[in-house]
Amino acid sequence: MEQWVLPVIISSNIYIQKKLIPFTGGGNNSIDPRFLSHFSVFYIPSPSRDSLFRIFSTILQSHVTTFPIEIQGIIPTIINSTIQIYEEILRLFVPTPTKSYYIFSLRDLSRIIQSLLQTTPERFNTIERFLRVWLHECIRVFSDRFNNLQDVELFYKILEDNSLMKDQRNYLFRKPILFADYRTALQNDQPKVYEDLQDYQAIKSIFDEIILEFKEQYGQIDIVLFNDALEHITRIYRVLRLDRGHLLLIGAGGSGRKLLSKIAAFTANCQIFEIQLTRNYNEISFREDLKVLFNQVGLKNIKTVFILNDSQIVDESFLEYINNILSNGMIPALFTEEVKEIFLKVDAIEFYGLGKRWN
Asked: Are residues 103 and 158 in the same domain?
């Protein structure tokens, strides 16, 4: 009997549903008009402001049910302010050749809410504390992407003009505005608590201990933990702790991006995976390395940070593989069907034998 498969083919905002059609590529793909003429086309617009408010307010309201009643009451205002800031960002910050990564989408809104779901009623039991962590998430999601001081200052003006910032402005904008849960990073039996880190000296004391452990595992390193370095590590760590967290680190060569990423990964209790370039390293070699990575992450269930330098991208096809990983978490035809069957059998044995496989 013939089996019918109905995939959804996506191109920008165009969705086509039909019998199985070969379609590759993780990004937006142009579709030939002659091919498109055979289908009924439906345009799905972006959610309205009311829809966005209902979606995100419902998610956040369900999270704060155990928080004080005054925090529950301010959630609608927080969601409205977040959407307002997002709309200002879209209007004022557009991509240019020197700012090609100034691309903002609804994913950025969801990341702010996702991060707020880490809060606990014990640590964030006043409106001021909850507003400060919300301010932190807005800064992390939007401001960390800006590459010049003028854009950062304009963004801070948008925040300061927001109605939520009229009261307690000195407290809300007190430096450093950094939140994380790595205070107990070296104590695996202790719960991770998302909290305001208060001051740089407290952060440095934590990382002095972490780096001692890091040196024992990875060897001697020379690093000075000045305030900017502490901020960068905290930013990287925050993203790595989120589900499907990934970063693009942009900066001058020799600025310490790779080392800080390794320290943040170690702090997040993740293994570090890197490719090793050889003289004849090519796409086939990269695929083999990715098989090792997927085996480590998917089959062995080891939390892993994949670090890839721009100098290691010796073939443009590497970018398509990375795009597929970020878009849908998989690479088409990376493993043969025989290997997939073996993986499924091993996974089933571990699941039924140990009673636990996936979280």
From this structure: yes
Which among 177, 176, 101, 166 is positioned nearest to 138, based on CA atoms? Answer: 177
Looking at the structure of the chain, the number of domains it has is 4
**Euclidean distance between CA atoms 190 and 183, whole angstroms:** 10
162, amino acid identity = N
Question: If we measure between CA atoms, which residue out of 177, 225, 234, 179 comes closest to residue 201?
Answer: 225
User: Are residues 158 and 54 located together in one domain of the fold?
Assistant: yes
Domain that holds residue 59: 49-172
User: Which ranges of the chain would DSSP assign to H, the alpha helix?
Assistant: 33-36, 49-63, 69-92, 106-116, 127-141, 149-160, 169-172, 200-218, 227-241, 257-267, 283-294, 317-328, 337-354
The string over 261-300, giving b where at least 16 C-beta atoms fall within 10 Å of a residue's C-beta and e elsewhere, is bbbbbbbbebeebebeeeeeeeeebbbebbeebbebbeee
Asked whether residue 159 is assigned to any structural domain, the reply reads: yes
Instruction: Write the pLDDT tens digit of every residue in 120-130.
Output: 999 999 999 99
Q: Which amino acid is at 158?
A: I
Kindly state whether residues 25 and 66 are assigned to the same domain: no
Mean pLDDT of the chain, nearest integer:
86
Q: The domain that contains 53 carries what CATH number?
A: 1.20.920.30
Residues 205 and 168 in one domain: no
Got the DSSP string for 123-149?
T--SHHHHHHHHHHHHHHHTGGG--SH
Q: What is the pLDDT of residues 152-203, one digit of tens each?
A: 999 999 999 988 888 788 899 999 999 999 999 988 888 899 999 989 999 9
Both structure tokens of 115: 């991060």
Last residue of a domain, one of 172, 200, 219: 172
